[in-house]
């Protein structure tokens, strides 16, 4: 075939994909063109081509924003508050409760627990507290404060010493130390699975 035949009316037309590098996405090609926009204009590229490249360049941020879905707002997890001044026992309880659906927050005193409750009281599903604690307040005083101010939280009080029932709020569950992991997990399951009591 002569040069004239190729350049004339009977010129061969190649499919568009033959002129593109296989496997390169079109948006990458557009970005590459946009990066050369200033050079193209300087070299006297026709205005209509320059305008096309300009539109590609302006559309890139919107295209990226449309392609990236907005992250869904994570619903805050309900909290298990472990209040224990013995670090090893607190760590054991925290590790155990981390196997549940609850997020775990550990405190070594009633005062520290009250600070958490003041900030996140509506999210606290379980308060698991020892009677003897570091600080001025003990676990029984904390339990009465929780029963009064955050009645929707499930209260579990534990101690190595006997506690008479009148000393506990009516809503509280008492577990003797050394507690069994299963007993703690059952209370955590109730706290996370059962609807909280109504606020009267």
Automatic annotation (TrEMBL):
Residues 1-23 are annotated as: Disordered. The modification 4-aspartylphosphate is found at residue 130. Pfam families: Response_reg (PF00072). InterPro entries: Bact_response_regulator (IPR050595), CheY-like_superfamily (IPR011006), Sig_transdc_resp-reg_receiver (IPR001789). Residues 1-10 have a biased composition (Basic and acidic residues). SUPFAM superfamilies: CheY-like (SSF52172). GO terms for biological process: phosphorelay signal transduction system. The keyword Phosphoprotein applies. Keywords: Phosphoprotein. The keyword Phosphoprotein applies. CDD domains: REC. Residues 79-200 form the Response regulatory domain. This is Response regulatory domain-containing protein.
């Amino acid at each position: 075939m002569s040069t004239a035949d190729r350049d004339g009316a009977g010129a061969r037309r190649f499919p568009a994909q033959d002129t593109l590098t296989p496997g390169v996405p079109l948006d990458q090609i557009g970005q590459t063109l946009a990066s050369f926009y200033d050079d193209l204009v300087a070299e006297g590229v026709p205005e209509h081509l320059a305008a096309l490249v300009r539109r590609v360049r302006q559309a890139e941020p919107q295209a990226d924003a449309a392609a990236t879905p907005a992250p869904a707002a994570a619903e805050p997890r309900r909290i298990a508050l472990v209040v224990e001044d013995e670090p090893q026992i607190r760590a054991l309880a925290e590790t155990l409760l981390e196997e549940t659906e609850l997020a775990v927050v550990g405190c070594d005193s009633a005062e520290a627990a009250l600070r958490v409750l003041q900030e996140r009281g509506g999210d606290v599903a379980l308060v698991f507290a020892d009677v003897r604690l570091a600080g001025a307040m003990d676990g029984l005083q904390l339990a009465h404060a929780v029963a009064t101010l955050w009645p929707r939280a499930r209260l579990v009080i534990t101690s190595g010493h006997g506690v008479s029932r009148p000393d506990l709020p009516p809503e509280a569950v008492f577990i003797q130390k050394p507690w069994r992991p299963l007993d703690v997990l059952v209370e955590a399951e109730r706290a996370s699975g059962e609807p909280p009591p109504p606020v009267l």
